[in-house]
Amino acid sequence: MDFYLSSSHIDWVCYHKLNILGIKGLQNRLSFIAKSQEIFSMLLMILILSSCQHATQKDVLLSAAQRAKSEKKYDAALNLYSQVLHNNPNDFDALMDAGDVCLALGQAGESIGFFERAASLDTEFHAKQKLGKAYLLTYKSKEAQTTFQSILKNQPNDKDALNGLAVSYDQQGDHKAAQKQYHQILQQDPNDILIKSNLGLSLAFSGDYDRSLALLEPIGLADWATKQQRHNLALAYTVANKRDKAQSLLDADKIL
Q1: What's the half-sphere exposure (Cβ side, CA atoms, 13 Å) at 69?
Q2: Going by C-beta distance under 8 Å and a sequence separation of 6 or more, which residues neighbour residue 178?
Q3: Contact call for residues 146 and 131 (beta carbons, < 8 A)
Q4: How far is CA 40 from each of CA 37, 77, 116, 146, rounded to the nearest angstrom?
Q5: Using CA atoms, how far apart are residues 28 and 246, in angstroms rounded to an integer?
Q6: Contact partners, residue 55, CB within 8 Å, separation at least 6
Q7: pLDDT of 107-138, one tens digit each?
Q8: Distance CA 36, CA 72 (A)
Q9: Cα–Cα dist 179/44, whole Å
């Protein structure tokens, strides 16, 4: 059965249980974390419901953080995950979620600390994948290269790691090494649009304009092309000194 709670309908027993569970001060702590009355109300409802189910402080904070994240209230979510990690610094899921929230906020640099800690706990390389991508977003190319290579030692055909390694090479100007990685992926999946796009840009940056455009034009000019795919083609046109074609693509996106 669905039910709804408001502050005027809360059973006094729930408040009593807050004291019994030793989380009497959590309501006040959450009020400082919350950025708005709406967020605070959400946290309070979770706090009260959880207290009736004998939840811990960590459970309450995690529930509120996950809900804030799902509702794209990323600032509140990050504050809550930080509270969890203050007392539980090795909570893998909280570390990963906090890193993801940082990325959603456009704070790739701040995500690195969370993913580095998570990677030290992870035996399945999921955290290292995220860490490598965060390194790429902050142009820490050498660190990204090392991270993806460590994954490939154990999983030599991992597509995401191969692509990440290739991008790290491109960022460092080693386009030949990058293109070798892209071709390795395309041997597994010849129709991978993302890898074709990355290979096309790598070819453009290395001066091989004809092969670059042969890859990128069928993608960037297609009816189904995404904005990013059109902009990849525009970038290749610019590098190839075809600025009129690049500008036409960009102008078309302004109209769409």
Answers
A1: 21
A2: 166, 167, 169, 170, 202
A3: no
A4: 5, 12, 31, 42
A5: 55
A6: 21, 63
A7: 999 999 999 999 999 888 999 999 999 999 99
A8: 14
A9: 53
Angle, helix 227-239 to helix 243-255, in steps of 10 degrees: 160
* pLDDT tens profile 30-41: 454 544 555 555
pLDDT above 90 covers a percentage of the chain that reads 71
The answer to whether the predicted template modeling score (pTM) of the entire model surpasses 0.85 is no
Q: Dump the DSSP string for 192-224.
A: -HHHHHHHHHHHHHTT-HHHHHHHHHHHHTSTT
Structure tokens at 239: 């590098």
Task: Say if CB 52 and CB 65 are below 8 A apart.
Answer: no
The maximal CA–CA distance of the chain, rounded, in angstroms, is 74
